[in-house]
Amino acid sequence: MTPEEIAAGMTGRLAPEGAGIEAALLPSPAVQNHAGFLAELPGGAVICAWFGGSLEGKSDICIRASLLLPGAAQWGPVATLSHDPGRSEQNPVIFAAPDGRVWLFHTAQEAGDQDGCRIRMAQLSIEGTDIRAAPGRFLDLPRGAFTRAPLRVLPDGGWLLPLFLCVPQQGHRWTGSHDISAMAISRDEGQSWELRPMEGSTGCVHPCPLPGAAGLVAFFRRRQADHVFRAEGTADGRGWSAPHPTDLLNNNSSLAAIRLAEGEVAVLCNPVNAAMSQSRRASLYDELGGTDARPDADTAGGCVPVWGVERAPLVLALSRDEGASFPERFLVADGPGTCLSNNSLDGRNRELSYPWLLETGDGALHLCYTLHRRAIRHLRLAPGWRAQLPRA
What we know:
By secondary structure, this protein is mainly β. Helix content is 2%, strand content 41%.
């Protein structure tokens, strides 16, 4: 599809795409739309949040969202939920708290300086398909903290917020070379946070923790573009093993992981890595320009990030052994996956990336992903979807 064809289809209407499968392109006034996130709200509505604007890192990038009401055949109108004119606001996470309140967490950074990023928390109010966000506030977490995966309620009622930390190198530009993962824990419903860095996680980012057989299990994106990594944690989120590789490949792009009602771990990702590709780009933000004359961060003591590996195909992988192996795989979407440019208008970007997964109370499986940096694509799979998706 061309950028113009994608734009024309961004109506939010669900259309059949085979037995038991419906698809839609989320409505948005922005030319770039990326990093979709799905959550089920009290009452059964599904919310999708993402960031949109002209180009990732620009200050017009802000948080957008839309609602799909129970039984609806079309997503509601797009809402703009953040309004910081000096920062690029990215990576939204929606959290339906046990008390019924709904919260938005998202990042806010200046240009491509991820190591200066802060996380903002704002309460959402929802009436019908209308979504509004209160002004919100920054969390008491260090600069460079980034979100991507959902919060979890701990056995004692505390909130667990998965993070990765863009660790600054004095006098150097951020490149991702020293990024690590961490967990933030709040005992007072988000008013204050305790930060718990994860030992041995350099290069492992976007931690996605799930309930495990004996505590928690988490899955990670890798800056080195080699494999999806996995770690095991205690039920309170405080203690973690060092991450180690799984049999799923990773291209230094985001993944989604959930626990299905039937018990399997499901991971949605691009199972390709740097060893399979010659495609490289200088950095995530190499198109922003600017006058930053600082050298790139020294990789000593860190890792060598790899950017530009293709972001396709998109595969749903299932595990019955807590994520130790993923023998069952389904193809969701395929294409060239070219991501050497973030431009959404010239047709060069062909990525199928940054997915999210949600299994709703009615047994349906919802997926969303970035389509060529131009739109967020949503799929709703009816129960019995395993018989409908082709094997990868």
